[in-house]
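Sequence in, structure out.
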Amino acid sequence: MSASRFDSAGDAFEQGYARLRAAEGGYVKNNLDRGGETYAGISRRWWPDWDGWRVVDSYKVLSHARHNLGAVLDLDITLRRKVRDFYRSYFWEPMGLDELPVQAAILAFDFAVNSGGDGIRLLQEALSDLTGEMLVLDGVLGPKTRSAVVGFCADRDQVETLVRYALDLRGNFYRAIVASDPDQERFLAGWLRRNQDLADYLGGVMEKRCENDE
């Protein structure tokens, strides 16, 4: 993996959040989606008490906003702040991601948000397979997991290996969802595209890309 913006010091959360916010989009209400009504990736079904819903609901009663609700919501500065604070307070900080290399942190962050899965457990599973050191798959960033991630990522080539392998596991996670609930197949292409987009963003080139570059 070549030198990149991730090699310089900076606010890892801001990098991860900017990437996540662009990927999640704005206001969506799809009855076929398990999350139901969402804004910026925040599901009303799973997070009904998020205080941003009061802002969303306040616009629904305004005639000028109802027909272009998503665009109107995206302009609300207060709502933007609430979204950012939500992801920092409920995902980034509880997961302890400031303690990890930036690439690993963003990988775990995106998985936890988008997949409804445990981002730390994804890293634990990937590292257990790659190193043969069996980490406890408990989703907790304890000393052993932290040391394993930091040590493995000390080599830039290993960072690429971790990203690629973890995203393969994530792809399998998506396929398992579809296998258990065929109605979700309509979303599979988008999920896999997001997986590839994240691989590209982190510099983890998937196998198909490697073959094309040869």
